[in-house]
Amino acid sequence: MNIVISEKDTAIYYELSGRGYPLVLLHGQYMNSTMFDTFDQEFGEDYQLIKIDLRGHGYSDKPLHINLDDYISDVLSVLDELYVKKAHFLGYGLGGMVAQAIAIRYPHLVQRLVLVSVGNEPFNDSEERFHLEFANLLRTMKQKDQDKLLAQYMYHDRKTVERWKRRLKDTETTMTNLERKAVNYSTEGVDLLSQSHLISAPALVVSGEHDHIIRPDHGRTLSEKIPNATYMLFENSGHAPMIEEKDRFVQDVKIFLAPELDI
Prior knowledge:
It comes from Macrococcus equipercicus. This protein is α/β, with parallel strands linked by helices. The chain has helices spanning 40-44, 68-81, 94-105, 123-133, 135-138, 143-154, 158-166, 177-184, 216-225, 241-244, 246-257, and strands at residues 2-6, 10-18, 21-26, 47-52, 87-92, 110-116, 203-208, 229-234.
């Protein structure tokens, strides 16, 4: 088990696999580093995969107060531990926000940047807007039924996503309400869109056409703010294009990252 101590004496868990140029993989909200295990073979042949459980998630400590700076320090602590001076970053949802923030504040660390299902606002803000839009339906539903309705509007290929989620290590159900609240409010008030013009690394922004939470136009808006960004819309995906159209995703990301293979 790989553990590093980050800011505020917080233990951060990370995993390493593959070999080659470092590729940092950052998971989504309430998920953990095992969400990327499905890519070990595809990316591990050419890259050293650095999979990190951000605080509040996975096997890392779960403090009751978290902010974006804390997440950034978690990643920097792991990179320092591994003597990594520069890397590719691939982030999904919350992890994408963290990768985006690192690219803004520490451009010397980021070779290339892949942002998946990241828009112009935090996920919980988008989720809250969704709940307000369907308030009349949701207020009479049990939590399980609410989750099912949410999934209908998040994913296009729900069966594939459900199979993928069943393979992940479940570290969410044991979280207390206070621990969940800390994650929920960790990105409150964060505005990265207005700073995205400071990103100097080449970036790939990926959205799913059927994602009604982080809508495709949000991803396109973000890509337009990043000076050297490419936008890709996955027409047969929702919020998890890397799973719903895995083969295409792997191919597109490999092509995007390929120029740095010989570094």
